[in-house]
# Entry
Amino acid sequence: MIYLTQLKERIPYFLPIASALTLVLTLPPFNLWPIVFVALIPFYIFIFSEKRFSNIFFGGIFFGLIFSSYLSVATLSGFKWIPDAYLFSTAINLLPIPIAIITSIITAFTWIYVFYLRKYTQNAFERSILFVGTFAIVEWMFSKILFGFNYGSLAYAGGHFEIVRLAGSLGGVFLITFFIVFINASLAETLLYTTAKKPTRTILSLVPLCIVLITFGGLFLYQNILNKQFAKNTSSLSVAIIQNNARKESDTFGFVKNGQFTFPLLERQLREVVNTQVDVIIYPFSPWVGVLSDTINNDSFNKKVIAIDFNTFGKWLNVYIPKETVFVTWDTRLEDGKFINVLDYWKNGTLIDSYKKRKLFPFLDYTPKWSQNISLYTTPYDASAGESQSPIYVNNIAISQLVCSEVIGSQVAKENVNSSDVIFSVGSEAMFEGSIASEVNLINAQLRAVETRRPVIRANKFGPSAIIDRYGNIVQKLKFNETGILYGKATITKKQTDTLYKKVSEYPYILILVLYMFILRFRKRGLNKT
# Structure
């Protein structure tokens, strides 16, 4: 502690910079996730020990700038979209600059506010709640503003720990983040207590640590109760997920020639699967370039848009897919003049059911009107949103769906999961060169499993693909950029119950914390009068 104090005196911003760099190490490709439980200790000490207003401001600037810069640059710098939208791709590549600037400024003013309120906290618990609540609320706000861009970064790192991840069933990503930051705050208070000259701090400084230990015990007990509850009346759904790292168009897609569809790479992989007798085969990508329609007629377009019709694809399915097996594809369909992003379920060469993507992502699924008005188009055609939340049934097992970006947030998962037994999360981050976006969305799939208490089948053409149990644990996995077939079974419990998070969301927790901030302000007035 003395060493930290000396460093702080020599380098005023050493502590916030140390915390930011440590947090970076918890994320891909470093993945040193256990240190997320101590990464914020230097920043906590800085916030509650620094005396100068300007140092708090610039400390917040450096903390926000380093952390947000890494997240945004590492994720967005390798973004590549369709050739016709090169201006959009360039804009996304440059987006980390304004994100980092705005994030760092908001972070700085946020901690100035905490600096303003900290003198009205009277003990370690109140200091911890002020720090933890502020951090968790700000990260939640960033996630909402940036369409889930920051992915709940602390929850991503700490979510590797099952007991911590279990908090998601009570309060989602927000409560996981809150718990992780509270662990940091409790350890910081313990460190300050053990190194302080008495009677500067009392044994009450250990109260936050005691709360953490009690919470861990409660979560262990909660997990044991859940294990007993779901141990009976189980069944299973067997799946095979086809994954490959082919990126050349000639390898990645099939084509229609002389009225017949052919897809050599996929056909080779299917020959391996057909003898395994699985319930469902998932190909988490479009098998063709273009859209599926009733007929191949492109007279209404100035270029080839419709690639294949139902009859042609059905003939191909009858050759390569066993009659008793359901084959799932992710493609775009032209229906009643609308382009729809769908998960199609095929059996015996015919389409038996579909899920139409409900929550469309701006610029990737459609071009917003304001962007069209300035002639900045990002999509060759705009997708239309689906409405149905109904599950799809395979062997009497109800399956809810999350298509691509729908896995990022919790809202669609909570809406779609009604009466379902398992979630299929099918998507791809093919527009990103690196693995970070794909790895993070695997964690998002784990978090959706915990929040809904349903197993999740995560299928990604380039990986990673995984079988995830109801607690968010990865049972089986194929790595990013690995070619192969992931075979697995999702354990289904027919007696499903909704989680507390699905019933109440994170808003009650946020409201309590906001009320606490107001209480501190009222306390300030009372102390001033006294």
In short: The CA atoms of residues 132 and 182 lie 6 Å apart. The first helix runs from residue 2 to 10.
